[in-house]
From TrEMBL:
The chain crosses the membrane at residues 16-36, 71-90, 102-122, 128-150, 171-191, 226-245. It is a multi-pass membrane protein. Pfam families: BPD_transp_1. The lineage of its organism: Bacteria, Pseudomonadati, Pseudomonadota, Betaproteobacteria, Burkholderiales. Residues 64-244 form the ABC transmembrane type-1 domain. It is found in: Cell membrane. This is ABC transporter permease subunit.
Length: 261
């Protein structure tokens, strides 16, 4: 009997392993909460009990709406800016050389420094949060776009010129299919990183939003409410991934041709 080899996508892992990972995290959380005490860390059950009053609070929806607007606009603008600059820089070595020091600076500087500078320039509020988010999101998308476009087969690029493809047609039918993998990876990183940046900026220098509410819970030593907000932030990231990122990944994945054994 010949032994069959597995080809194509990796074999699906049973979901029970993911459930096991969640149970392991909850167990570790419970052990840490028992060791630290209720003042420093609420238990999972205390956090769940705090969710109900938190969601019924009249200030809940305005806080979530403010943060969600900043996340969508900040991450979206940063990713679009990085993608546009990446497309232009991939076609122009001169522009790529000009942007390289700025790219390096933005990827090397700690986000907390950008938050402090943005607070000095724009004060507290949405402008500061949006500026910081766009500035931190654009370099990652820029790097992935440039690297993906430079790795496209030069023969295919020359062929597109021979057949007189315009710039838009070349981008749509040549570069975007090649950018599917790096773009989806960059979008996933940008989404989770963008939420962290927005919440951090709100904690340090905003007068509304989830981060502002998180800072208030910390200042009153309400650990159950603090961890309830943390849990809601995790649920927000999951909702954004399922509602926005996964449909976009499927849309980009339509460029890929199915593999045949």
């Amino acid at each position: 009997m010949t032994r069959q080899t597995i080809s194509g996508p990796a074999r699906q892992v049973p979901k029970i392993w993911a459930v096991g990972g969640v149970i392991l995290l909850l167990g570790a959380w419970q052990v840490a909460a028992n060791a630290l005490g209720p003042m420093l860390m609420a238990t999972p059950w205390a956090t769940l009990r705090a969710l109900g009053p938190l969601i019924r609070d009249p200030a809940f929806l305005p806080a979530v709406s403010a943060s969600l607007e900043r996340i969508v606009l900040g991450v979206g603008t940063g990713c679009l800016l990085g993608f546009a600059l990446g497309v232009l820089a991939a076609h122009s070595p001169q522009l790529r050389a000009v942007l390289e020091p700025l790219r390096w600076l933005l990827m090397a500087i700690p986000p907390i420094v950008v938050v402090v500078l943005a607070m000095l320039w724009f004060g507290l509020g949405s402008t500061m949060v949006m500026f910081m988010t766009v500035l931190m999101m654009a370099p990652g998308m820029y790097v992935n776009t440039v690297k993906g476009m430079l790795q496209v087969d030069r023969d295919l690029v020359e062929m597109s010129h021979v057949y007189r493809f315009g710039a838009w047609r070349r981008l749509l039918h040549l570069y975007l299919p090649a950018l599917t993998a790096p773009l989806t990876a960059a979008l996933l990183i940008a989404l989770s990183g963008g939420v962290r940046l927005v919440v951090m900026a709100e904690v340090l220098g905003a007068d509304s939003g989830v981060g502002y509410a998180l800072a208030n819970a910390r200042s009153t030593f309400d650990s159950a409410q603090l961890y309830a907000w943390v849990l809601l932030i995790l649920l927000l990231v999951a909702a954004l991934e399922f509602a926005l990122l996964q449909p976009l990944q499927r849309r980009l994945g339509m460029w890929r041709e199915p593999s045949h054994a």
